Amino acid sequence: GWAIVPPTVLRDGPFGPGMCQLWMDPDPSVDLVTLARSNDPGLRRMAVFDAVVNNADRKGGHLLPQPDGHIYGCDHGLCFHVEDKLRTLLWGWAGAALTDEAVDVLTALRGQLAGPLEAGLHELLTRAEVSLVSRRVECLLDSGRHPVPSGDWPAVPWPPF
User: Fold this and answer.
1) What's the pTM value of the predicted model, to 2 decimals?
2) Three-class SS of residue 117?
3) Which of 70, 81, 91, 123 has the fewest CB atoms within 10 Å, measured from its CB?
4) What is the pLDDT of residues 38-96, one digit of tens each?
5) What SS3 state is found at 113?
6) SS3 label, residue 63
7) What is the tens place of the pLDDT at every residue in 11-43?
8) Any idea what the Cα angle at residue 134 is, between residues 130 and 138, rounded to 5°?
9) What single-letter DSSP state applies at residue 14?
10) Cα dist. 25→8, 12, 13, 62 in Å?
11) How far apart are CA 67 and CA 48, in angstroms?
């Protein structure tokens, strides 16, 4: 995988089951506005990831650049919706061809979704949500391109940072 999401575990809490994610302090020397507008390969991977999980809230403050150059993306649950709701700052590759690396990763993911990964996802997501993850992977592979904003909803979350 691309290690986009910080390590995350399921936990039982006082209000029921939930997730706990490792806190990742961003590198304070990195300007997030400049980073979000860059052609960084890690952000391009994140754009593909967000398309697969249908991320409805990729804001600049959700980019967590690390001192070693790696970029994590934190998420707080606005993913996997059954309606197309992709909202992101990472539209810089809209309509561009997917990289060979992205095609390879998506192809491997397609195979994993037909196997044990699917069963694991069914423990966390509804049947429809899991099915739509597979459909989004297929759509990306069929088109060979990054998605473009549909115009049916705001393409950029507010506020963007």
Assistant:
1) 0.94
2) helix
3) 123
4) 999 999 999 999 999 999 999 999 999 999 999 999 976 789 999 999 999 999 999 99
5) helix
6) strand
7) 999 999 988 999 999 999 999 999 999 999 999
8) 165
9) T
10) 15, 25, 24, 11
11) 23
- Sketch the domain layout of the chain as residue ranges: 8-143
Show the DSSP H helices in 28-79 as ranges: 32-36, 41-53
Name the DSSP class of 7: P
Ranges of H-type helices in the chain? 32-36, 41-53, 100-113, 116-122, 127-143
> Would you call 33 exposed, middle or buried from its count of C-beta atoms within 10 A (0-12, 13-18, 19+)?
exposed
Q: What backbone torsions phi and psi does residue 110 show, to the nearest 5 degrees?
A: -55, -45
- Which residue's structure tokens are 């990763």? 105
With tokens 């192809």, the residue in question is 107
* φ, ψ dihedrals at 45, nearest 5°: -60, -45
The residues, any chain, with a CB within 8 Å of residue 156's CB and separated by 6 or more, are 87, 88, 89, 91
Report residue 11 as tokens.
């936990």
CB-based contacts of 66: which residues, under 8 Å, 6+ apart?
24, 26, 27, 72
